[in-house]
Amino acid sequence: MRPLDVVELAEPEEVEVLEPEEDFEQFLLPVIHEMREDIAALTRERGRAHARERGKLWEMDNLLIQIKTQVEASEESALNHLQSAADGAQGRPAPRGDKAEEKAQEMAKMAEMLVQLVRRIEKGESS
After folding, report:
1. Helices then strands (H, E): number in the chain?
2. pLDDT tens column, 73-110
């Protein structure tokens, strides 16, 4: 090993020592302000995300209400038809083929609404 040179040790570098107030203002205050801005931004984004989720839930709820209304209307229509047939309704009832076609169209509409609901739910989960 090589012996240390005394001249190297005798000349320490000067380091400027700041007063505590200067140190705080120069280094800590900018960091504190930046952290506060980050916290505020995260809080705003959290609020927006919550609002988006509530909006999606509201849409799904409305779609479910529409589906329920369709089902209830279909049930009521079927019950009214059965009641009128049982009471001997005047006139000849529509042929069975027409009734079946009407019911098939109602079911297709309800199925499409259910597919839309599932797609919205899946889209919400992937977001």
Report:
1. 4, 0
2. 877 887 777 777 666 645 555 566 677 777 778 878 88
The pLDDT tens digits of the residues spanning 25-67 come to 777 888 888 999 999 999 999 888 888 888 888 888 888 888 8
Whole-Å CA distances, 112 to 98, 117, 119? 21, 9, 11
Query: Got the DSSP string for 69-125?
Result: HHHHHHHHHHHHHHHHHHTT-SSPPPPHHHHHHHHHHHHHHHHHHHHHHHHHHHHHH
Task: For residues 106 and 68, give the distance between their C-alpha atoms in angstroms, rounded to a whole number.
Answer: 12
Please name the amino acid found at residue 77: S
CB distance 103 to 74 below 8 Å: yes
What does the angle CA 81 – CA 83 – CA 88 come to, to the nearest 5 degrees?
A: 95
